[in-house]
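Worked example 2:
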Amino acid sequence: MSKMIAFCGLDCEQCDAFIATKNNNQALREKTAWLWSELNNATILPEHINCEGCRVNGRKTVYCESLCAIHQCALKKGVTTCGDCPEMEQCPTVGAVFAHNPQARKNLIEKKG
């Protein structure tokens, strides 16, 4: 499985934080920080928007590193992704991701193994 598929199945290479980091795009960092702050009812600053992918060694956003329940759960369970968790289909946390991005579930199923 590609290391650029996140624990939840999202494609990190399509994430605005990853793109802003890769391209050193300050305007995209600012836009992403504002949006993520609104969505998560948390203070996320542009300087927090630096990420090289949630499953690789390197920088991660403050959200992915500390606030993402899926990231914390996968690390605690020791699974490579949610696709390796026997509870994935009943999990409301990753289910919320799938509801907004059905491709995430497909990524986990297709790339399992």
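The chain is about 50% helix and 0% strand. Residues 12-110 form one domain.
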